Amino acid sequence: MSLSHSGLPSAEIERVFAVLRFVSQQQEASSSSLSSLSLPAAGGSEGDTLNAGTVAAVAKGKAGKKVSDPLIIPEDVQNKLEAFRMAVTNIPVQMEAVQSARAALRTALRDAYPNKLEDVDQLCGCNVFLKATPKGTPHFMLRDVYALQAMHEVVPGLYVGSYHPASERELLHRHKVTHVLCCIDVMPRFPSEFTYMKISAQDMPGYNIAKFFPQTFEFIEDALIKQHSAVLVHCGAGISRAPTIAAAYLIKKLRMTAVAAIELIQSRRHVASPNLGFRQQLRAYQEELGIYPEGAEGARPRAGMPLRINNKG
Which residues form a coiled coil (predicted)? Predict the structure, then answer.
């Protein structure tokens, strides 16, 4: 099994998100079945907008979209998924522990979803998330100048890039992007087709980018888990601001250290390099969440924090 530059098994990290999406899809299917048997409720919902806080602007396409219910994970699946998550994000990674945790997760999923055994077995297959470079990819497209203008998938559905892919409608649709998180002060390019969040961040070490972490976490979470789609986080060049926002999401979601989150992003997007001030803010955010490297002073509790979708902590 290949490891990312951070020493993390990137394929297994992708599996964590795939399991969350799978559970969310089952919940959505169950809710749809139940709602078809009941009368529609009168009136509208007041929770149909994002709490943008200090975010400069939120432009929403696809008006009237229903806000997803919080994800409810069966308790045994929750516990096994959390154990698996810790196994794949604790450095140094013990592959025997990863394999054991994955097997336990598979059993829990089979017990919870007996009508989806084939899907569960495929989801927990050993090599299902391993990838290879697509054949026929022109060599010139692998050079840094083109990598700078591209967007790169860090974990399933989470893309980081520059402004260029954000202006390419067909590219976004092809990758099933529904949400665009813009970290620079530009107007949404296709406001009627995508859900946007805009934060006007400055790429300076002294700039307080951490103030956006709570809102951007919820925005990315809505796309990846609740909407089963994809999100592009971009800035001007995709080097500092966008990778910082993506790293903050990974730190909270996967209980990773700031160093591990940055290195995971860099393993997918080599030009990513948050400035020193942003790195310090990510490290402070990590410590605020009670996340520490294994063996460090005040190390995080072994149980970690559950992977709850409506996590506010």
Answer: none
Query: Can 183 be counted among the known catalytic residues?
Result: no
Q: Is the pTM of this model over 0.85?
A: no
Q: Of 15, 268, 16, give the one whose Cα is nearest residue 126.
A: 15
| pLDDT of the residue at 181 | 97
Cα–Cα distances in angstroms (integers) from residue 228 to residues 8, 25, 140, in the given order = 24, 8, 33
Q: Given the DSSP bridges, would you call strands 158-161 and 151-155 parallel, antiparallel or unpaired? A: antiparallel
Domains and CATH numbers, the chain: 10-37+52-62+72-130+138-288 (3.90.190.10)
Q: What would the DSSP string read from start to end of 183-234?
A: -SS---SSTTTSEEEE-----STTS-GGGGHHHHHHHHHIIIIISSSEEEEE
Burial (CB count within 10 angstroms: exposed 0-12, middle 13-18, buried 19+), residue 193: middle
Instruction: For residue 228, give both structure tokens.
Output: 């089963």
